[in-house]
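ugh ok fine here u go
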Amino acid sequence: MVFQGKRKRNIFDPKSSEPFKLSRSKIELFIRCQRCFYLDRKFGIGQPPGPPFALNSAVDHLLKKEFDHYRALGKPHPLMEENKIQAIPFKHPSLDKWRENFVGVQYRDPVTNFLVTGAVDDLWVDPHEALIVVDYKSTSKDSKITLDAEWQDSYKRQMEVYQWLLRKNEFTVSDTGYFVYCNARKSAKDFSKKLVFDISVIPYSGDDSWIEQTLADIRACLENEQLPKSAATCEFCRYRENAKKHE
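structure:
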């Protein structure tokens, strides 16, 4: 992927009355580093993109096809039965749109005038007609799959944004969502042209109460003429600072 330098579209203009599009990933960027977020959304200077995760995308695609098969049948997927989850895959004419990157589930927040977006992986529905947000994750490691690592807090916020968006679209949404976590085994005796996965279905109880205040903080950040401080943990900011010393 080629780094294109300054971006000219989707730049925040405080004088504009048009809703400003704000994706779930950009909310996460703000939480991680306000300076990087400000440079991105105010001046079009984004962080250099990382390489595409083609294998992860393939797993996501195949999981969607598999769950869609049971969605068409109106039956629970075997993983749901194995984990005693009382639900079936949710049918809706907008599901494909909600899954699409750069489109997703959308809601215009009237307080900040942000058009908040987030592309879901899947939705299930329980017997009480409450939607269950489902996110697919892929990895390959020897230790037990959990959600305990600090870096996985971003996964939890991701799910909470999706829950919030669906609630704002007047759906009843369960607090409990699920991560379908696929872990490629390293213990196989050989490759044999395939990866074998162990799949864990991990429940997570979301709390979206932080989102609206965060949106207000983002609006205030973008309207401020001063560049925010960088986060102490931001590797991009540390790189820029160290590079300047030697240029």
